[in-house]
Each structure stands twice: as structure tokens, then as C-alpha cells.
Design a protein that fits this description.
alpha+beta; globular; Arc Repressor Mutant, subunit A; 7-stranded antiparallel β-sheet; Jelly Rolls
């Protein structure tokens, strides 16, 4: 049993499960209970189109978290302690409030010694995370000390959304999901501050992060180009290419990926059915539907 993140958006609130039902719920979301504990679980979640935002509490258990291809999961604990074990037990890290687990396409074992644990999880497309940060994350990373302001921003926003009845037909829903994805990227970026100094200069890391922020903000404008990006960053186009090349990417690729992510977010549910392909392309920043389809194929 697995959750299909590409299906229409869904909001599930006040879910309370125990035993096999709780274990099945976790397993469908990439968390397999390996000690077959009598787990009790309470959760709320918003899902759809490769995205998942969840507020989760459950009793002690040994859980194997497995990453999905093309997806990154950011886990923010708010109550209780766990230990993250990887590489056959050779790597062990404590995960408690203040720390964050970022899971790429690897797998880790998470053990909860406390009676229970509460956490927030957000799953987003890996392509939304800048290339240098993806390389630093690898299969997984535990960020030991993420600034409280970044964690609090995500937790506060998540509580606000999960405590209310979100209109799943609203045309603002795709933008809401993107906003949460950007909050997750901010947490990862802040937690990895300075971690890549041996491979990337501080200036290039800062420029690449700023460039990705500008792309996220401006990609929906069809007039936005690499030249405009360079102007926004106040550097030459040549240097823009150098910054992205050091990260194993290119500005054109990242702009296309950002537009493709927006296009996908406008292709689902009632919102998607109410828009033509040309309208979705225009909203995402593509010149036309043909360019949008080409980009969607390249970024699958």
C-alpha cells in the first residue's frame, strides 16, 4: 500500500489509528515499522502532486524511513527524541527538537526511546533544492542545529493550514504548496550553512542560493531569462553559468524545472480541469503549451 502523491489534493484531519491500521498508514508513507510494536498514531496531512505536509504523533517504535525517487523528505521533530541509524549501524545521530532530518533517496532506521514522538514532515520535489545542497544531503543528513526562526516558520504555517478547512479547489492551493516547499528549502539551506566550503566558495554558494530564490519568485514571468537573472544578481551572464556549473547544473535547466513544477501544480483536481494547456503554460511562465510539454518530459 502506498500513497500516490500525484493524485488530486487531499486534506486528512484528525486521523487516529492503532495497531495494524497505524502501521499500514506509516508504511504507505515510506515509514515501515520493523519491530511490529502496538503503535498508536494521530495525524493530519495535506497531500497532492508530489507534495505532502504532515503533523504526526505516534508512540515508540523502530521505523525504517525510505526515500522516494525524485523526492526529499524534511522531518522536523517538536517533541521526544529519536536516534537515526544508517550504514548498517556505523552512522548514528540523535534527532531531537532543534535538529532536522533530511532524507534523500536513501533509507535510515529511526528508533524512539521516549514513550512517544511528535514531528512535522514535508515531502517535496528534490529538484526544488539547489544542486550544491542536494550533493551535501546525499542519501540523508541530520542537521544538528537549525536556527529556531526557520523551524518556527514552518511549524507555525503548518499548524495554521492543518487546523483549518483548506479549500482544495482554490486556485491558490498550488502556490500554497510551493510556499511550504520553499520553507523546507530554507530550513535545509540554513542547516547546511557553511557545510560545502571545501567544494564551493562561500560567494558561489550564496549566489547559487540567491539565484534559486530569484528563479522561484520570477520563473512564472515568460519574460524572465538568464539575462534578467544576471541583472537581478548584479553579475555577468558568464558568471551565472559558472555558479550553476560548479553545482552540476545550469540556469536554463533550473528555470525550466521551476516552471515545470508550477505547471504540474496547476494540472490537478478542479483547478487543473478548469484550465486549458495554454492557460497552464502561461501561468507557469512558458511561451506556449508545446514548450511546457517538452519541459515536463525533460524533468520527469
Amino acid at each position: 500500500m502506498t500513497v500516490d502523491p500525484s493524485r488530486e489534493p487531499a486534506l486528512r484531519r484528525g486521523v487516529s489509528l492503532r495497531g495494524a491500521a497505524a502501521i499500514g498508514w506509516l508504511e504507505a508513507r515510506g515509514s515501515s515499522v520493523t519491530d511490529r510494536a502496538d503503535v498508536s498514531l494521530v495525524t493530519d496531512e495535506l497531500t497532492g502532486d508530489g507534495f505532502r505536509l504532515a503533523r504526526l504523533w505516534h508512540t515508540a517504535a523502530v521505523v525504517e524511513m525510505t526515500g522516494a525517487v525524485g523526492s526529499t523528505r524534511v522531518v522536523v521533530p517538536v517533541e521526544g527524541r529519536t536516534f537515526v541509524v544508517a550504514e548498517g549501524g556505523r552512522a548514528r545521530s540523535e534527532l531531537a527538537p532543534g535538529a532536522v532530518l533530511v532524507l534523500g533517496e536513501g533509507a535510515v532506521e529511526v528508533t524512539t526511546p521516549d514513550p512517544s514522538i511528535a514531528r512535522f514532515e514535508i515531502a517535496l520535489e528534490s529538484g526544488m533544492i539547489p544542486g550544491p545542497l542536494r550533493e551535501l544531503i546525499g542519501a540523508h543528513v541530520v542537521l544538528a542545529d537549525v536556527p529556531v526562526s526557520f523551524r518556527a516558520a514552518l511549524v507555525s504555517a503548518a499548524n495554521a493550514v492543518l487546523n483549518t478547512d483548506v479549500d482544495l479547489r482554490s486556485q491558490g492551493l498550488p502556490a500554497l504548496r510551493l510556499a511550504f516547499s520553499h520553507l523546507a528549502v530554507a530550513i535545509v539551506s540554513a542547516g547546511l550553512e557553511g557545510a560545502g566550503r571545501e567544494r564551493f566558495s562561500l560567494r558561489e554558494l550564496a549566489l547559487q542560493r540567491r539565484a534559486m530564490e530569484v528563479i522561484a519568485e520570477r520563473a512564472r514571468d515568460p519574460e524572465f531569462t538568464i539575462e534578467r537573472l544576471a541583472q537581478e544578481l548584479r553579475i555577468s551572464e558568464r558568471y551565472v553559468h559558472r555558479v550553476f556549473s560548479a553545482a552540476g547544473s545550469s540556469p536554463a535547466l533550473e528555470i525550466r524545472a521551476a516552471r515545470a513544477a508550477v505547471a504540474r501544480s496547476y494540472s490537478e483536481g478542479a483547478v487543473g480541469r478548469g484550465l486549458t494547456a495554454e492557460e497552464r503554460a502561461r501561468l507557469a511562465g512558458f511561451a506556449n503549451a508545446t514548450a511546457m510539454r517538452r519541459a515536463l518530459r525533460r524533468t520527469n
